[in-house]
Amino acid sequence: xxxxxxxxxxxxxxxxxxxxxxxxxxxxxxxxxxxxxxxxxxxxxxxxxxxxxxxxxxxxxxxxxxxxxxxxxxxxxxxxxxxxxxxxxxxxxxxxxxxxxxxxxxxxxxxxxxxxxxxxxxxxxxxxxxxxxxxxxxxxxxxxxxxxxxxxxxxxxxxxxxxxxxxxxxxxxxxxxxxxxxxxxxxxxxxxxxxxxxxxxxxxxxxxxxxxxxxxxxxxxxxxxxxxxxxxxxxxxxxxxxxxxxxxxxxxxxxxxxxxxxxxxxxxxxxxxxxxxxxxxxxxxxxxxxxxxxxxxxxxxxxxxxxxxxxxxxxxxxxxxxxxxxxxxxxxxxxxxxxxxxxxxxxxxxxxxxxxxxxxxxxxxxxxxxxxxxxxxxxxxxxxxxxxxxxxxxxxxxxxxxxxxxxxxxxxxxxxxxxxxxxxxxxxxxxxxxxxxxxxxxxxxxxxxxxxxxxxxxxxxxxxxxxxxxxxxxxxxxxxxxxxxxxxxxxxxxxxxxxxxxxxxxxxxxxxxxxxxxxxxxxxxxxxxxxxxxxxxxxxxxxxxxxxxxxxxxxxxxxxxxxxxxxxxxxxxxxxxxxxxxxxxxxxxxxxxxxxxxxxxxxxxxxxxxxxxxxxxxxxxxxxxxxxxxxxxxxxxxxxxxxxxxxxxxxxxxxxxxxxxxxxxxxxxxxxxxxxxxxxxxxxx
Length: 685
Description:
Layout: H1 10-13, E1 22-23, E2 25-27, E3 30-34, H2 36-50, E4 57-64, E5 74-77, H3 80-83, E6 93-102, H4 105-109, H5 111-131, H6 133-136, E7 144-151, E8 156-166, E9 173-174, E10 178-179, H7 188-197, E11 202-207, E12 213-216, H8 221-228, E13 232-236, E14 244-246, H9 248-259, E15 264-270, E16 272-273, E17 276-277, E18 283-288, E19 304-307, E20 318-321, H10 328-345, H11 353-357, E21 360-364, H12 368-379, E22 384-389, H13 397-400, H14 416-427, E23 432-437, H15 452-468, E24 471-474, H16 483-491, E25 495-501, E26 505-510, H17 543-546, H18 554-570, H19 583-587, E27 606-610, E28 615-619, H20 632-641, H21 643-651, H22 654-660, H23 662-671, H24 681-684
Parallel strand pairs: 2-14, 3-5, 6-7, 13-15, 21-22, 21-24, 22-23, 24-25
Antiparallel strand pairs: 1-9, 4-5, 4-6, 7-8, 8-19, 8-20, 9-18, 10-18, 11-12, 11-13, 15-18, 16-17, 25-26, 26-27, 27-28
Helix pairs in contact: 12-18, 15-16, 16-20, 20-21
């Protein structure tokens, strides 16, 4: 550049001296291409990051120059536009943008709300003009605005683009364009230079009659002009029309007017052909820059235009409906997640929804309680659920158990576990529900020689299921059927929820951790209040005793409480070791046991309720050292002897009393029995 000769006067004379100036017109941009993935990315960002915020989001997009005359250049917005890691394809112009997602449809429809964010973007462009940042980075002049309202329930996205353009004090006037090849030779070096420079959108260029050239940024215009005299301003023009310039030129001319003394600027409109800059189809024209008015200064942001018209040519927003293009299963999953995330926005910001959704839940018993719990888990977004039951669907089940229908009862009834899993997937296709038909071995239930192998297999299968689970729900009909699951869950230190029903009363409780895992006082299990080993409770039962006879609404309440207790526990930082809330201690002014570590509130040990007088209590019970299900003696015996110990306990429940010391307690109680002789004569008198 130092050795280049200065231009001769004949250089400018090649333009027609009689070329009259006419009004310069601009071709608007179009938001023709907004990828579906962008809306999916916006959906996720709204749920996970923005929530109720209407703060501006920085975008990066690209302008695709038009490929045919009469068609506008288009703005490409992709999912990566939100991430700020936007890689621009060759032949496109990288431009910044601002996104504002309104929380309500009324805010989106409000002209005042839209104009406020529009003015913010215009102010930013004007600031970049005044402080010279746009000279160093001309892409700032092409900043666009996107305002949206995302209807997350219906997957409808309402949106409106704006491409703000500052209005000059007077219209721009331009000479008749002259094809570039008529003035200068097109060399490969010059083509390569323009290809490289178009990413800047605008730059300065000095050309000689011998095809030599010097180039620089817009901020170098004055220095190049002082050195060489005639200097062009080249800009990437996405338009192909002969009589209109690309929209990107509007704010560029305002920048020139504010910073340069001369009122006439010579431009090279670098046009595109097949996605690459093409100097053979580019144009040269002179622009008359109007003088700035008194109101057109740094203290007053100029008026701006730029809201895009819709496809009908009206100044109205557009809408995209993604519901029809999405997999219905994905729509269902997204809808479930939406309801959960809405809780985080205001009610429970610290809620860890993903932690609950990742849990692998095992439900033992697919009856009234099991169906209710399964539905509750799905509502919490839990994806992995296994149901275990040995029964078949009977005619009395569908009316009380929400996962069965009449057709399941026909032909002797379908297996309950498999049928419940099938219907659970019909409720929510995104759930991975599995049904396992299996009888849980129970103490006191006779095991004949032919059934020993079947019992051993059931023990091993149940142990495998418990080990694979994160949470175990014990919801079986009889007391003794809860013993083996309680022992296995304690041994493997699993979060365990137990729920049982009476006629008008219920119990929901969580079990404490494995004895060897804690040094402090441990919470008890379902069997810790017993002083006898579990036995066969089905012997000599009448019909009303053979069925679970409860008030119809009881299971819904108890099942819901079990699920909610699990969710609170899963969100507690100590998990299974979380301390229990005891309201009775609070009333007695004893040391506080309230723990606010869970975003869902306190985590009680047990909840007992009654429909008779409609009361509910949270109670705490600590582990019984002689418990037949969770005491250290029983757990250690199982870990030592395994299946052999279980077979002994199942066939002879009294062995559990011997092991835990309950037999000795019974003997001591019998020895301490004293007969009293009452003299009733005084009472009669």
